[in-house]
Amino acid sequence: MEHAAPAATSAAIPPFERFYAAHAPEVYRLLARRLGTQAAEDAFQETFLRALRAYPALRHGDHLRAWALTIASRVAVDALRRPVAGELPDPDLSGELIALDEEPAYRQVAHLTAGLPPTERAAVVLRYAYDLSYDAIGLALGSSPDAARQATSSGVRRLRRAAAPKENA
Amino acid sequence: MTHADPSPALDLLPPGLDERFRERAAAASLLDAAWAIADSPLGPLLLAATGRGLAWVGFEAPRAGSGPVADASPEAQLERVAEWLGRRLLRVPRLLDPVQRELDAYFAGRLHAFAVTVDLAGSPAFQRAVLEELRSVPYGVTATYGDLAARIGKPKAARAVGGALNRNPVAIVVPCHRIVGAHGALTGYAGGLERKRALLELEGALLA
């Protein structure tokens, strides 16, 4: 398996204006599909406010489209959950995540992470396929850096167990 | 008024959503700076303001015949603003409207001293000292690099003063166009000498 691109070849982080203008229409379309046009407007703003909060934690400008759409997916999940907080199971994000980006980095791990719960899968993908910091992942998932770290390591532990079931008690 | 939306892709959003998001981001203090494009008789100006004040006034494109200048396209200039002030930049024209109004009055000859607060916090200490001192050179008056060096207590630093002025991030409002060579010669100007001459003529510091 190939390694993720080293930092020296990573894309520069553009001014937020360019990131926003490049991805706003697609983010809105995704949210309108998931939530309807009225709720999509609030979710659109929440998505880019989260992105703004997370922007200083970005370490490179690779995969920003996937990053934006991942945040939007999380915001949509939160919006769908809100009326019955804690009642619904975590909706499956696998279709959404796979559709996010055609970058090789994601495809390389998609088959490995397909069995993870959604939050762990998003955390593992953002950490290892997109090389984001825990700060950026936490902000993308609407949680804290610590929670992002925990979701990532619990996802990795689950993957290890799946890969080598006999070694685990 | 500052310019309307320059990004056609954003026209695909429902009416008003783009503007509401920009206002909300600014209200939440999540921006390193708000920016806008302003009109002026010398061509479009890129303006940017932090929470502390006006931090960037740059000519958007060089005039023909003004000699070699750095790439001044809006895209390239926004990159430089991002390096200077931080990457969280969003166009929020309303926040720059007071600056546009003062620039309009200045170019109409009605305003001789800008009242907007200027934020020079991004400049290194020496440059900040030069630019702060420069703000006390009045409308219609020129001074030399040596004068300015003496006024900040470093009479031998005329060349360094020139370097600091050349990187003035707040053109026009911080009036580096009022600084001329030892014998009154129009020396370098980041926006091009033609613009420097036009500004000094506007202020009556040069005979047209």
The whole-angstrom Rg of chain B is 17 Å
Helix and strand run of chain B: HEEEHEHHEHHEH
The general outline of chain B is globular
Q: Biggest interface, and residues per chain?
A: A-B, 22 and 27 residues
Distance N terminus to C terminus of chain A?
28 Å
Biggest sheet overview of chain B: 4 strands, mixed
Compute the number of strand runs of chain A. Answer: 0
Q: Please write the CATH class name of chain A.
A: Mainly Alpha
CATH topology of chain A: Butyryl-CoA Dehydrogenase, subunit A, domain 3
Helix coverage percent of chain B: 25-40%
Low-confidence spans of chain B: pLDDT under 50, at least 5 residues? Answer: 63-69
Approximately what portion of the residues of chain A adopt beta-strand conformation? Answer: under 5%
User: What number is the mean pLDDT of chain B?
Assistant: 89
In the sheet with the most strands of chain B, the strands line up as 3-2-1-4
**Approximate helicity band of chain A:** 55-70%
Alpha plus pi helix count of chain B: 7
| Biggest sheet layout of chain A | none
Gyration radius over CA of chain A? 16 Å
Tally of domains of chain B = 2
- Shape of chain A from CA axes? globular
What CATH architecture of chain A would you give?
Up-down Bundle
List the helices and strands and how they pair.
The complex is a heterodimer of chains A (169) and B (208).
Chain A: H1 16-35, H2 37-54, H3 64-81, H4 94-100, H5 104-113, H6 118-129, H7 134-141, H8 145-163
Helix pairs in contact in A: 1-2, 1-3, 2-3, 2-7, 5-6, 6-7, 6-8, 7-8
Chain B: H1 17-27, E1 33-38, E2 45-50, E3 53-59, H2 74-85, E4 89-91, H3 93-107, H4 125-134, E5 143-144, H5 145-151, H6 158-166, E6 179-180, H7 193-202
Parallel strand pairs in B: 1-4, 5-6
Antiparallel strand pairs in B: 1-2, 2-3
